[in-house]
Amino acid sequence: MWWKGLDFATKLPFARDRLVECYFMALGVFFEPQYFLAQRLLTKVSAILSIIDDIYDAYGTMEELKSLTEAIERWDASCTDHLPVDYLKWVYRALLDFYEEIEEEMAMQGNSYPVHCAKEVKIQPYFVEAKWLNQGYTPTFDQYLSNALVSSSHTVLIATSFVGMGDVVTQEVFQWVLSRPKMIRPSELVGRLMNDSFPRV
After folding, report:
1. Which of 31, 67, 149, 150 has the fewest CB neighbours in a 10 Å radius?
2. Would you place residue 82 in the very low, low, confident or very high pLDDT band (cuts 50, 70, 90)?
3. pTM for the complete prediction?
4. CB burial readout 109-146, b (16+ within 10 A) else e
């Protein structure tokens, strides 16, 4: 219902519809029934970030991407009015609404701290990649990799899914994830290199 309500297939025909893929990925991570909320959150954030990735990689103009980057970095609903085109407003609103949904869910559980951690969406690396493409610049492998590992969004995916795991995940765990520990980096590397090695269809 949520995805159909967003109507991205009609509003954003250029973007890949990866909801089913995102669901199965989340199901592989959280197959236990008690982690249904974590599974749902991981599915949703993956689907939204997939759309945002397509905007930066294949569709948005540099002016549009600059305004979206600034809006996401400010994380303020009033920024919606300053976005230059409707499709950016829809995506930005969907991102804000998703995290508002998490805040409401956590408020009912009396635990709002995790939401702050889940909002650690690092959007600047997406913009850097778009600038490189726009300028025809080929980064060195080291430049590419240091930027690409952050734009893989693994940290935000992990933090957001942890929000749905309840009391199992403590404040210390969130701090650990946000520090991008070495344990997460192989996953970032494999995910990013696989994503960048296959053509988009």
Report:
1. 31
2. very high
3. 0.87
4. eeeeebbebbbebebebbbbbbeeeeeeeeeeeeebee
